[in-house]
Every structure is written in C-alpha cells, then in structure tokens.
Amino acid sequence: MTRPVVVERRIKARPETIFSYFTDPERWLRWQGVEATVEPRPGGVFRVNVNGGGFASGRFVTVEPPHRIVFTWGWEVEDYGLGRLVPPGASTVEITLTEEGDLTLVRLTHRDLPEPAADLHRGGWEHYLGRLVVVASGGDPGPDPELRPPQP
Fold it and tell me: Which residues form the domain of 12?
C-alpha cells in the first residue's frame, strides 16, 4: 500500500453546504458522476458511476455532520484493471471540513490504495474537487470533460 492520497481545496462556503454535496445524491451529481446511490449513515450504500465508465462503490462508515464523512471505495469495473486493484470497499475515503473564516478547508484523504492506483485516484480527486469548489461556491462547472459515452 502507498501513503494516503491527500487532496485539499478551500471553498467559499459553509461546512454545512459542502457537507450536503457528499450526502445528497442530486447534489453529488452536480460535481461528480452520472448516477448515484448515497445513503449517508453508517453501513449505508455508497455507489457512484463516476464518469459513465462504471461504478465506484462501498459503504458509509462515519457520518458526522457537518465536519466529517468516511466511506469505503472500490471499483465494480475492470476498466484500467481498477476492479482488480481496488475492488468495491477495499479502500477508504475520509472527508474533513474545517472552517477557516469565510472559507472551508476540504481535506480528502484516500487510504489503502495500492501503488499502481494512487496516481490515477489522485488525479481524479484533484479534478472532481476542483468541480466541487465551483458548485459549492454557487457556480456551474459545466459539462465534465471526463465523461465517457454510454456503453451499449
């Protein structure tokens, strides 16, 4: 296993607002994904079709509104071999939200990733947290350039 992937962004929004983008499936889809099942309670389902190419899935572990949420993560698809490297629930994502004046520090820590998957996940989280910054600040990030055409 590698060191955790850590991605941080500061957003001009309250923690409560940002937290809702991790707990409401409609809001989640404004910054990441094309389909989502999000049941934000310990043991609840986490399942998001991130870019149209397949689902990342796991279970919620910890839900502490509005400052912390933890869920397991892995891939149901074999795309890029990710399903073999990181099967559903094999890694853990922790989101912490810390108020800093009129900003909130969003720290995403993705643990238990094997070395070959770390850079790909880091790049993905950097891209999607950038979109979250726009949405949670009240903007529209536009179409996601990472979306793939639907598979037959």
Answer: 5-136
**Token pair for residue 51?**
């870019």
Please state the φ and ψ torsions of residue 78, each to the nearest 5 degrees.
-95, 0
Q: Which neighbouring-strand residues pair with 108? A: 7, 95
pLDDT in tens, 81-97: 566 889 999 999 999 99
CATH number, domain with residue 18? 3.30.530.20
Residue among 146, 74, 137 nearest 111 (CA): 74
For residue 146, tell me if it sits in a domain: no
Amino acid 87: pLDDT = 92
Tally of domains within the chain: 1
Q: Which residue in 106, 88, 86, 108 sits closest to 97, CA to CA?
A: 106
